Amino acid sequence: MRPTVALIDLDAFKANVALLGRVVAPAKLCAVVKADGYGHRARLVAGAALAAGAVGLAVAIPEEGIELREAGVNGPILLLSEPPAEAAEATLEHRLTPTLYSEPGRSAFGDAAARVVGTGSVHVKVDTGMHRVGLDPGEVVDFVIGLADFPGLRLEGFWTHLAVADGGADEDRRYTELQLSRLAGHLDDLAARGVRPAVRHAANSAGAIAHPAARLDMVRTGIALYGELPSPEVAAALERAAPDAALRPVLSLVSRVVAVRRLDVGERPSYGRLRPLATSSSVATVPIGYADGVPRRLFEAGGEVLIGGRRRPIAGAVTMDQIVVDCGPEGDVAVGDEVVLIGSQGDERVGASEWARLVGTVPYEILTGIGPRVPRVVPGARGATVRGWRHWLRAATGPAPAP
pTM (2 decimals)? Predict the structure, then answer.
């Protein structure tokens, strides 16, 4: 019933898929929708990705893939980490494609395939320098050849993950080239044994945009699909690759003013009384807080929101459920006014990347941190009216505009 929602622009999402698909062609695009679609709701964006040209989807854990299957998503779904042995049967029963890189995992999935599906596709991951998960380099040939001991497993893909594809330093570029060279070496070793995986992939969003050599057969794009980029260097590379197009932000985080009070100069709103008001000001209360994904440090870092098409500074500590906003001495704010925390209003925009820069993190964390009690709404979709918001606003200020 709070007037706080995250608006998901599926047209923008589809446009981003199409744009990135053109940039990486002839490589195919796999849409990464893990972490609930980077906070955008995986069940909303998964179908949109496939409709816009993605050849498949990628998630982190079996539960994410199973949720998509139960929502009616039928495209290929790749698991980016090896599932635990006890998840093997459920993974294959739901037609999820596991990534494998351990002997126990290979055995568990080989046995499960024989029991439940007959034959299941798998991808094998090698660690070329990320040093997180994946086969050790010396294990690759024996591991892949050993798949023949499990007739139910069919090698479809072979891949790695790039550690610094978003970096702009010469050292970062050299390391990315080294990782790609190592991957190519493993593929040559496998080819010498007669094994040629159908799908070779290495590129995340940064690799897909900034390192054309990393595109191979398929790229795994994540953050870029949602209209954000991991670094200025990647943004510059995209501008060079597609000078007449740009990614469109997909998520807007929007609320409404629920209270306004006039405070004298020197008053200190919110917990801790951290900062005095520089002038007599109208201070607006907005029902969203750190439990919803607004970083508590955003106030101290100089965070702003949009009200009436203008940037307005957060006036005191972000609390669990609410923020207070300094709307200045003019008093041009009222209960019911729209508040944009992430998104555009008038000629102004506040992006997830701005929040990330202010609080010292990455836009991934900002987007995935928007909490589950914030409804995700697709404007214009059938049944997507924000009933609580509209009812509340009508009671407070009269008829509400359509969201």
Answer: 0.92
